[in-house]
Amino acid sequence: MSRVWRTWSVLLLFAVGTSLITPLIPIYQDELGFGDTVVTLFMVCYVIGLVPSMLALGQLSDRVGRKPVLLGALAVLAVGQVLLVTEPPLWGVLCARAIQGVATGAFFGTCTAFLVDGAAPERRMFASVLGAISVRLGLGLGPGIGGVLAQYADNPLRLPFELHLVALAVAAGLVFTLPETVTVRSARPLTLRLEVPAAERAVFWRVLVPSGMLFSLFDGVALSLIPVFLVRELGVSNYALVGAAGFLVLVSGAISQILLARLRAPVAIGGGLVWATIASMGVVLAAPSESVALALIAVSVTGAGAGLVFKGGIDLCTQIAPVADRGKLLSSYYVACYLGGFSVPLILVGVLGDLLGLTAALACLSVAAAVGSGWTIFSGLRSLDRLTPALSASGKRGPGVGSIGDDAGSG
Question: Which three-class secondary structure state does DSSP give residue 195?
Answer without folding.
Answer: strand
